[in-house]
Amino acid sequence: VGAMPFGIELQETAARIAEAKYPGRVSACDICQTLPFGERFAALTMTDVLEHLHDPLAALRSLAAALDEEGLI
Fold first, then answer.
1. Cα–Cα distance for residue pair 60/58, rounded to 1 Å
2. What average pLDDT does the segment 24-38 reach?
3. How crowded is the C-beta side of 63, counted as CA atoms within 13 Å?
4. What's the predicted TM-score (pTM) here?
């Protein structure tokens, strides 16, 4: 109830298309780095992502830093 989705996309073209539909809520970036939204999240999901990352542990650390106190990945 009342959730506002955000998205990360590695491919810039795909991110621009999504950003046009959801302004300010989609970014082209590497999730192994700090997320660009300046938000704290209650939940973060990834579908078919970890196995494709060059540094999955760095990604999990980056995502954990963006969670609120009781947030879940």
1. 5
2. 89
3. 21
4. 0.78
Please report which residue ranges of the chain form alpha helices under DSSP H.
12-21, 56-65
The torsion region of residue 38 among left (phi > 0), alpha (psi -120 to 50) and beta comes to left
Query: For 52, how many CA atoms within 13 A lie in the half-sphere containing its CB?
Result: 7
15 within 8 A of 9, measured Cβ to Cβ: yes
Q: How far apart are CA 72 and CA 62, in angstroms?
A: 13
Report residue 11: phi and psi, to 5°.
-85, 120
Place of tokens 């947030």: 71
Distance CA 60, CA 23 (A): 25
